[in-house]
Amino acid sequence: MASLKSKKLKSIPAEITVPGDKSISHRSAMFAGLAKGTTIIDGFLPSEDCLCTVHAMEALGATVERLEEVEGIGLVKLAITGNGLKLKAPDKPVDCGNSGTTMRLLSGILAGQDFKTELFGDASLSKRPMKRVADPLGQMGAMISGQGEKICAPLTIRGAPLKSIYYKLPVASAQVKSAILLAGLFASGKTTVVEPVATRNHTERLFTHFGIKWLREDDCVSVYGGQEPRATDIVVPGDISSAAFWMVAAAATPGAQITLNNVGLNPTRTGVINVLLRMGALFTNSETHAEGEPRGNITIRGGDLNATVIGGSEIPNVIDELPILAVAGALARGKTLIRDASELRVKETDRIAAVAQNLRAMGVTVTEHPDGMEIEGGAKLQGATLPCWGDHRIAMAFLIAGLFAEGTTTIEGSECISTSYPGFEQHLDLFLLGDTGARPIPVMSTVPQPLVDKMNRAKS
Question: Which residue of 75, 173, 215, 281 has the fewest C-beta atoms within 10 A of its own C-beta?
Fold first, then answer.
């Protein structure tokens, strides 16, 4: 079992470029595998999770050509040639590794095939509920079976001719929404998903990019069946969920400043910026639009953070960032409350329990609730040896916490970080050893007015 250590940060590097967006990398590989022709994906995230999706599409008949690798990161550019919506039956069960995104979205694709497929994953993935996907896909005509009442992996999916449905999500989930919409491509008529709260919209944006017509009416997202994706090259922006770790490190350091390059700025993903603005951090960004996803450079200036409340409709927008935002709460003045986040209980681990346990081990007072936690900020953090339960976001969040702790913080089982952020250790070293080679921070010539307004409201 691998371990990583962190201690009081030595300096804040001038700039960092984080790897490609995980959600977009997954979906790009799937859409490319469903399209006729060749799609080149540049900026791909070669994490273990995303590579599981690539291997799955290969097993289902797509051809993959590796075009470019970066030392310390891995495969960042590839070409995927698909044969259209009709896939081939795999020779053996498909391994989804630790990736819930792979398993849930593939379930939607496989529901409309004319063969049976088995999907399996590691011990962590095998504990995660798939019933939320199996139920609507079953209503569409597929037969999906798994283990226990929650229909956990391994899954058996028997595809069938699908019928369209009008489905209200019991819980806001971009993965479940995406699985149903992907299945809708194979269904007759119009498939509609009703969201209780708007979730990340990468699937819908990729529909547009690959030539699939869809529509949004209020809280309803719909797609018509019978449409086939059109092979189209795509550039993947940097992952804002990965950038969030460095945002918090800089935001909690008075006088610090860092620029994060080429980060995705999709409005359904920028909740972490809004939260840190409320807490007292300062941001500027330079935004451009390309391939349907806004992107740009973000500069964060640190200061004294203040507690905040995170909950309600913003939770789906920050669900992946809540572990590191909990660390920000521990570094802030006052009590930070996270609520309406029961979804954290069924991630790679129970993230509410994991965060609370590790914060307490570092000297923070935490009150755990069924749907979140209350964090008493301002305590002097103490280094500790901490578990991460095979959860990459827990591991990285507490390595950042270690940058503000007395002594050494050791994260056991840190190999799980490779599921989402290859190169994290090298970037962490910039904070631990000092950034000797970074270029000067570019001057931002403009600040978009909506962001100025948010900053002003946060300071008022």
Answer: 215
* pLDDT beyond 60 at 17: yes
**Which residues pair with residue 295 across a beta bridge?**
264, 288
pLDDT of residue 448 exceeding 60: no
Q: Which of 21, 49, 239, 320 is catalytic?
A: 320
213-245 pLDDT per residue, tens:
999 999 999 999 999 999 999 999 999 999 999
320 tagged catalytic: yes
Q: What domains are defined for the chain? A: 3-19+237-459 (3.65.10.10), 22-224 (3.65.10.10)
- Could you tell me if 206 and 31 are in contact, meaning their C-beta atoms sit under 8 angstroms apart? yes
What residues contact 184, with CB distance under 8 A and at least 6 apart?
162, 164, 190, 191, 222, 223, 224, 225
Q: Give the residue with greater pLDDT, 286 vs 122.
A: 122
Residue at token pair 């451009």: 288
Mean pLDDT score of the chain, rounded to an integer?
Answer: 92
Residue 2's Cα: distance from chain center in Å? 23
For residue 349, give every residue at least 6 positions away whose Cβ sits within 8 Å of its Cβ, in sequence order, or none.
124, 389, 390, 391, 394
Write the DSSP string, 344-372.
GGGSSS-HHHHHHHHHHHTT-EEEEETTE
Helices (H) and strands (E) in the chain, counts: 14, 25
Element (H, E) at 282: strand 282-290
- HSE-up of 124 (CA within 13 Å, CB side)? 20
244 three-class SS: helix
Q: Give one word for 158, left, alpha or beta, with left for phi > 0 and alpha for psi -120 to 50.
A: beta
Give every CB contact of residue 443 below 8 A, 6+ residues apart in sequence: none
| Cα–Cα distance, 362 to 364 (Å, whole number) | 6
